[in-house]
């Protein structure tokens, strides 16, 4: 899997205002900015992202994914 493929999978499952994905093919890092994260705790946000990946997480196609999940307001405050 490529970074672009992983980014597309996440974007297909969540409304994303911004998304960056990098990694080596098994270990990934992602910055995901979505209004869907509003009012949710970090663990809930991560579960939402994992849900977009479905079986790819369980079959080890995506071995590890480190995430920074932000709402648009949180992202704007960090810029």
TrEMBL record:
What InterPro entries does UniProt report for this protein, alphabetically? BolA, BolA-like_sf, BolA/IbaG_stress_morph_reg
**Which SUPFAM superfamilies does UniProt cross-reference here?**
BolA-like
> Matching Pfam families, A to Z?
BolA
Q: Where is the signal peptide?
A: none
Q: What is this protein called?
A: Acid stress-induced BolA-like protein IbaG/YrbA
Task: Report the family membership.
Answer: Belongs to the BolA/IbaG family.
């Amino acid at each position: 899997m490529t970074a672009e493929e992983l980014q597309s999978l996440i974007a297909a499952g969540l409304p994303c205002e911004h998304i960056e994905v990098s990694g080596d093919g098994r270990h990934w890092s992602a910055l995901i900015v979505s209004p869907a994260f509003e009012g949710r705790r970090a663990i809930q946000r991560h579960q939402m992202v994992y849900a977009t990946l479905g079986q790819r997480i369980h079959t080890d196609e995506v071995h590890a994914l480190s995430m920074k999940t932000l709402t648009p307001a949180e992202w704007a405050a960090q810029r």
